[in-house]
């Protein structure tokens, strides 16, 4: 079920911040009223597609920050595993140099509550609790506004890396809507015309394009 238009699920969980410090009770509540948040889930530390995405977010971090957007990553690994990976050089497959928070969801409850856990628990024929599927998160991305409401979400299957520039475009679209009260048509990007959400506004936009 989509979370768009709903409050993002709350949590308190360990995380690594600034690439080096473990905190025990990280929460998105710290951003309420202050910043929008891009929360992204990735499957697993010490893998292959994941570091390309993690570094890509880091490379665009200044662009997010100048828009008052916090970037936060999350996987079902432990905080110790996050920290270990952060201490491996980029050219060795690590994520050294990443400074935004990485949440440790070792209980898998955050991924479950956001709807991106790639499996679930069930009882087998012997009435034993087992996990069916993959005990990692899909590549979910959530744009959460300053009120803690999810305004956009996308979920990719495990082998499909996401486009960070598209996430930035969606941030720009959200900010344009909030600032001008206009809606953003297909393929809109910053600097292009938006349109009024009326029949006349749509007709005018289509006639000029």
TrEMBL record:
Keyword terms of this UniProt record: Oxidoreductase, Peroxidase
Domain of life (superkingdom): Bacteria
PROSITE patterns linked to this entry: THIOREDOXIN_2
GO molecular function annotation: peroxidase activity
Domain Thioredoxin as annotated: residue spans: 2-176
Coiled-coil spans in chain: none
InterPro entries: AhpC/TSA, Peroxiredoxin, Peroxiredoxin_AhpC-typ, Peroxiredoxin_C, Thioredoxin-like_sf, Thioredoxin_domain
Keyword Repressor recorded: no
Residues annotated as transmembrane: none
Record has Transferase as a keyword: no
Membership in a protein family: Belongs to the peroxiredoxin family. AhpC/Prx1 subfamily.
Role this protein plays: Thiol-specific peroxidase that catalyzes the reduction of hydrogen peroxide and organic hydroperoxides to water and alcohols, respectively. Plays a role in cell protection against oxidative stress by detoxifying peroxides.
Record-given protein name: Thioredoxin peroxidase
UniProt organism field: Shiella aurantiaca
